[in-house]
């Protein structure tokens, strides 16, 4: 197995806007020269947030991966798992210094994304569809 690559991470703040992000590029080969299963060359994430005040923040987490290969019924690495981007969004509001209300939506646009194909056995693992939750956190 041989793997080379580059990983970048960064964060910046521009007034009320903050951005955190990362990018990983991987060029990997197994001993037989094939790419590893389910290993995309590019994986990335970006989280911009707007802090309107000490109480109110709105943001999104953007997570994505390039296409990858998986084993299929006709042989090794014969199924292509498509690239995908998933957007998660959130709003937080501090009700008091100890109580924070959060509304979060994961996979906001209900992207159909596959993370593995179960080695060609006729099944695939899909990224969870859109979920929305509200939570109240209280710090003692």
Automatic annotation (TrEMBL):
<dbReference type="InterPro" id="IPR036942">
    <property type="entry name" value="Beta-barrel_TonB_sf"/>
</dbReference>
<keyword id="KW-0410">Iron transport</keyword>
<keyword id="KW-0472">Membrane</keyword>
<dbReference type="GO" id="GO:0015344">
    <property type="term" value="F:siderophore uptake transmembrane transporter activity"/>
</dbReference>
<keyword id="KW-0813">Transport</keyword>
<dbReference type="InterPro" id="IPR039426">
    <property type="entry name" value="TonB-dep_rcpt-like"/>
</dbReference>
<keyword id="KW-0408">Iron</keyword>
<keyword id="KW-0732">Signal</keyword>
<dbReference type="Pfam" id="PF00593">
    <property type="entry name" value="TonB_dep_Rec_b-barrel"/>
</dbReference>
<keyword id="KW-0406">Ion transport</keyword>
<keyword id="KW-0798">TonB box</keyword>
<protein>
    <recommendedName>
        <fullName>TonB-dependent receptor-like beta-barrel domain-containing protein</fullName>
    </recommendedName>
</protein>
<keyword id="KW-0812">Transmembrane</keyword>
<dbReference type="InterPro" id="IPR000531">
    <property type="entry name" value="Beta-barrel_TonB"/>
</dbReference>
<keyword id="KW-0998">Cell outer membrane</keyword>
<feature type="domain" description="TonB-dependent receptor-like beta-barrel">
    <location>
        <begin position="2"/>
        <end position="108"/>
    </location>
</feature>
């Amino acid at each position: 197995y041989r793997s080379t690559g580059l990983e970048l991470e960064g964060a910046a703040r521009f007034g009320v806007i903050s951005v955190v992000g990362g990018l990983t590029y991987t060029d990997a080969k197994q001993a037989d020269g094939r790419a590893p299963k389910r290993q995309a060359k590019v994986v990335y994430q970006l989280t911009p947030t707007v802090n309107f005040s000490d109480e109110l923040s709105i943001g999104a987490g953007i997570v994505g991966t390039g296409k990858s290969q998986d084993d299929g019924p006709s042989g090794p690495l014969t199924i292509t798992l498509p690239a995908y981007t998933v957007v998660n969004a959130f709003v937080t509001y501090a009700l008091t210094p100890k109580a924070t209300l959060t509304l979060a939506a994961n996979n906001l646009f209900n992207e159909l994304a596959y993370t593995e194909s179960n080695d060609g056995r006729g099944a695939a693992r899909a990224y969870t569809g859109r979920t929305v939750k509200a939570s109240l956190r209280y710090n003692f």
